[in-house]
Structures are given as structure tokens and as C-alpha cells.
Amino acid sequence: MSPAHGVPMNPPAPFPITRALGEWIAGARFAQMPPEAIAIARISFIDCVGVTLAGRRDVAPQTLLDTLEPADGDALVLFGARRACAPDAAWINGTAAHALDFDDVALRGHPSAVLVPAILAEGQALNVSGKQMLAAWVIGYETWAELIYRDEGQHSLKGWHPTAVFGPVAAAAACAALRGLDSRKTAHAIALAASHAGGLMANFGTMTKPYHAGRAAHAGVVSARLAAKGFTAADDALEHPRGFLAALSPAGHVDLARPLSAGAPWQVLHHGMSLKKYPSCYCTHKPLDGLLALRAAHGLRPDQVASITVSMSQRNALTLRHHQPRTGLQGKFSIEFAMAGALTAGRLGLAEHTDAFVQSAPVQALFERVSVQIDPLEDPVTGHAVADRVVVRTHDGRTLDSGPVSEPRGSFALPLSAEEVAAKFLDCAREGGAGGKAQALLDTLTGLAGQADASWILPVVD
User: Fold this and answer.
1) Complete domains list, the chain, with CATH
2) Rounded Cα distance, 324 and 358, in Å
């Protein structure tokens, strides 16, 4: 547009995001990081290792393992006796971490399912300390936050899975930090990783969704390794008009001009990390809390319920794309199953996310009684409604209202207790076959900052 219309002919020059991020990552150190940030990283390691153990037997990581047939290497695969090179281990373990959709949530995606597998795999190859691992997680988180919050749009509405879009760059940042790359090579690592970005929301409810996390972890490890060897990428790959941020922006409303904010202030202290209470898409969690509270308070039985109306954002409703699910995977992305399953079982845990339970006649019969009402009041940062709501109408004429549910249990604003975090870890570890070794692993992860090297990473399952 011309100056006559009050709009400058040329947009502001972009800030050199790629180079500035490279400089920040290369200079970031554990000693500079707030204790609260390290505490979030530590809890994220605990939770991610737990859900990785729980997901290790899932068909997605097992199929990937069988297909890759990795040669022996430095890093444990699925916390068993088998080892592989770090990129393959990160790929397989990242897929396992996200396989059950029980992993943590932040930054419009699933950071730890990407960062922890990449850091653990490369950390074993380099034999780094626990402090270096924790610092690398914080660096990866800050990198992800720096990029995603430059865009006011919701990538998921465009069809992009943010975990697969921002995960490669964040993992590359973490791995570049573990390798101690200089600022130029670090910039090349994250620029190269940006060309690995991708992942479609349409694949939710299939094995490809957890593959997104594993592939992002793999991309981060490989990108940092290539950059360490002198492999080059564009110094402006992130901010270029045809670069990462602009190319993947849902509506082109991306801020390329503002200076870097990573670590100043610390984004992890502002946005935090949310742990999952239920092994399903996070979009189901507030409605699940609301329905289960109503069920407990009123002794609700499925045969009493005439209808269930769930109020949520348009973005969340579109994410929950399976309205007549037939598999446990599809059920994770179905508000119909979340409500029907929780009403039937009185809970919604790992045992309920099976093909048999989803296909059971009592559960299937409830699907048609569940409807969604779109709430236009969305949080512009998260894409969630400001509050979800569940209204149940019974055959005897009662209307039972959960009231507004603004935060799910486990969120950064309503966190699980230390005891609940530990209980979830131990349940997941036992599900994965860790048995009597689960408590020792939990103790080690709790004291991760005190580990001098990576020798603590030992097989805990056969």
C-alpha cells in the first residue's frame, strides 16, 4: 500500500532472530538460570521419563524400532538393554514419550516429549552432567517460546501440529547447548532444524501424532551434530520473509521486528508447564474435571443422562476431530468418548483408552447424547476458552452444571502435588515394566542436578 493510505511502503527490517538466538543459546549457563526454572525442568524430566516407560510397549515406538533396526550405539532405547546411536534413540524414545498422549503440555504443544528424549540420548553420547541436561531443557523451552509467541495465530487452526513445527528447533537448541557449540554453529543448527518443521493435525488419533515428537527429537540431535561438523544453514532462516516464521504462520501475523526475549524475562516462569492427569488430548481435560465432579457429587449413572453439553473453544473442538471413535487412539481426540468413557467408568485412565472399551456398547451408546457448544471467548495465547463448562440434563428433568472450569488439575496454575507427580511416575513406570527399579529411578531424577555425568541412565526394564 502507498503512504497515502497511511501505511509505509516497506515493513520494518526484521530483527536478526537466528543469529541472536544462536548467541543467547551459546552463552546460556545453568548458573544463570532461576532455581524455579530448574525445578520446572526437573519435574518435566520426571514426568516425561514416566510416560516414556508407560508408552514403551505401544505399537508406534515398537514398529519404529523394528523398522529402523538400529545398530548398537551410545544411548538406551526405551530404557531397556538395547542401545542405538543418539539420533535413532531420540526418535524412538520421543515417539514412546508421546504415544499415550500423557506427556506434559505448554507453548501450544508438548515440549518435553521432544526435549527430554533428545537431551537424554545426546547426553549419554557426550556423557554430560545432570545440570547440563536441565539447562539444555530450559534452553529448548525458551527457544520454543521465543518463536511461537511471535505469532498471534494458532498454528493448529491452519493444520500444523506445533510440537512438530517448533520441536525440531527447540531440540536443536538444547543439543547445541549440550555440545557447547559457538554462536555461529548454534545458529546454523537451529536454522537447519527449521527445515525439518512440519506435522499435520489431520494425523491426530493415529500413530503419526507421536511420531511427530520422535521425529522432532531426531531432527534436533542431527541438526546440532551436522552444525558441529561445519554444515551450514542460512543466518536468517527464522526471520527471512520466506523463512520459518513467515512460511508457517497461520495468517501471516508474525512479529519479526521485536528484539529477543529468551531468558529476559524467563518465559518458562511465565508460561510454565502443565502435567496431564488424563492420558488424552489436553483439550478434554477441563471438561473431564467438570463431568467427573458432577458424577461424584450427584452419583450420576449413564442410564440417568439424557444429554451432555460441553462448552469449549472452536480451536479445541476442531482438535477433537473423532466423533464416532472406534479405537483407543481415536478416543484420545474425541470429546464424545471423553464424556462417555468417564461417565461409564468414573475415571479415564490408561485402562480406559483401549479399543475394547471404546467399542463397548454402553460407551458407544452415549456418543449421540454428547454435543459441543462453541465459546467465542478464547484465550489468545493458548487457544483454549477462558473457561470450559459441562451441563448434564437427566431424564428426570434435572439440569446439572459444572460451572466454569478455568483450569484443569495439573495445569501450571493448579499444579499436581509432589506426591501426585511421584504417584503418576510410579504408575507409569510399573505399566512399562520397571517394577522394583521404579522408585530408584524416581529418586535419581529427583536429584538430577547432583549427577556428575550420564552414567545414571541405566536399563530399568528387560
Assistant:
1) 10-271 (1.10.4100.10), 282-401 (3.30.1330.120)
2) 10
